[in-house]
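Researcher: Good morning. I'm working through a list of sequences from a screen, and I'd like to move beyond sequence-only analysis. For each chain I'm collecting a predicted structure so we can compare shapes side by side. This is the next one on the list. No need for commentary yet; just the structure.
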Amino acid sequence: MRVLYFHQHFSTPQGASGTRSYEMARRLLERGHQVTLVCGSYGAGRTGLIQPFIDGARRGSVDGIDIIEFELPYLNRDGFIRRTITFLRYAWRSVIVALRHDCDLVFATSTPLTAGIPGIAASLLRRKPFVFEVRDLWPELPREMGVITNPFVLWAMAALEWASYHAARACIGLAPGIVQGIERRGIAPNRLHLVPNGCDLELFGEGAAVPWRPKSVLTTDLMAVFTGAHGIANGLDAVLDAAAELKRRNRNDIKLVMIGDGKLKATLMQRAQREGLDNCVFHTPVPKVKLSGLMRSADVGLMILANVPAFYFGTSPNKFFDYIAAGVPVLNNYPGWLAVLIEEHHCGITVPPGNAGAFADALEKMADDRSALPKMGAQGRMLASREFDRQLLSDRFVDVLEAVVLA
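Model: Good morning. Structure tokens for this chain:
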């Protein structure tokens, strides 16, 4: 079948962003299908296309994937209005592609929620089968976080969410709470599928990359690493709170390394400098292929989110799956399905949200008993292999798309 795949923030492993869509597209190719992927220009991502844009777009083939990239730059630090304009411009240009491009199935993945618009158009106007993948529940998340309060905007988002779910012949959720949230919007269970983010066991396997650490982190330091966006949702002040507590305890042998970028990174760096938190190390985004080397040197992976109940069961963060794929113990600071996995499989430590003392206690425990860390990491790696191997999950993903076309 010919799949028209919409993902505004697509990236290959050469970029410093999630590669789920790349891996899923590659598995579609391996199963004998054709893929045309339509994306924007994501600041942390790399599509693999290097030729100049012509009339605001460029097209080429990367690892067998036919890519259409719109010249629509986007950064995590962009403000709300600029982001909204970029989302709508991508949706409009994608609708044009969806109405003209020959295909057997249209697939769209959020975020943003506007990614579903070309799928709705293809479904209603061309009767093309449409599958919608939901990475976050909107407008639930921005409403609970308080980042969007305008009632008209929230109503419009809820309407678009409902339309996307009901126009799709199947919906894929990345977390149990996401699947449940879609079902609450009136979608029958037989049209719902759970396909969480997966673990790239090959990329993060032993010997896959040269181990490295930032220059300011000694080999004798316990290195706890956070990888990902530095935004409101990530709640990274919790890391700085723990760093301040560790400084008060004179635990200078514990370094907290934050890899990535985002709207709040400058603010976080200013706070660290103001409070003398030299145990916090900020690093620019790192491509996945290099990140695997950093994870080989890491002692702990930090799974941090703001204390928002909608996050507990409604998110599927890439970083968690990278940590366990690399065999790195996880320190998690919020309840939910991932916290349950960590506790049940003994692959890390969970602490209550907003408790800097407990956060620091956990880091001290890990630093003082480093012999326990390899066993935690091995437990995580076994969990990754048994339940979250991306090869297995990508097959499940393709099975869903094939079943929709054949129905």
